[in-house]
Amino acid sequence: MQSNVQEDDPILTTSEVARLLGVATSTVQIWMESGAIESWKTPGGHRRTRMSLVQSLMHGDDGARSTPNPGTDKEYQPALQPGYPLGANERSRLAALASTGLVDSDPEPRFDRLVRLASIVTGSPIALISLLTSTRQWFKARVGLAAQETTRDWAFCSHAILKNELFVVEDALADDRFRNNPLVLQEPRIRFYAGVPLRDKSGQPLGTLCVIDREPRRLRAAEVQSLVDLAEIAAGEIQATGRNQRG
């Protein structure tokens, strides 16, 4: 009987799962490490899973996952003709974001405190923790802004996540990349933006901690350091979320 069960539900390698789902092997490895695909390690350190678990992922069975399905959910597949700059690792980045389960989650004091502090220490009326799917930027925490999300095409943060350091736009109306952006020409009428990428443990940039002003300006050195420090704390909280989901 045990033999029949194993034949009906064979063990799969990461490469075999990748072929079934039509994604890169590296993407499957991220999903397995994050717990998005239930798996285990062999004595040699290689990830393995069962066919039934992959089929549950493909078919979106209830209870199979508590996070979005990167294999079928359009929001977690790279846009074919994006209206924003795209990094070479976008597919893996989106898979990592999906595995956190943070997008569309409830507000949390630990993130709300960080945007309040970012607003205060930089003297900025708006501060956000922004997470970027392929179709929208969604705000896990926000102060000074009523909107919960915007289209990804408008996101200054799409540029920020491509950097390894603070990304600053001192005057959006004087910047060819942003002067015609609806968020500049209409509410909230962004003129100044500064964002720090928020990375998971593997280094994938999931979004930013950013501050916004309606007037052009510069940050002082102490304000830059404070924003970078708060972003490091926010990234740590995101990484802790991933660990909690796995264990």
UniProtKB/TrEMBL annotation:
It comes from the Bacteria. InterPro entries: DNA-bd_dom_put_sf, GAF, GAF-like_dom_sf, HTH_17, SinI_DNA-bd. Residues 59-78 are annotated as: Disordered. Residues 106-245 form the GAF domain. SMART domains: GAF. SUPFAM superfamilies: GAF domain-like, Putative DNA-binding domain. NCBIfam families: excise (TIGR01764). This is GAF domain-containing protein. It comes from Telluria antibiotica.
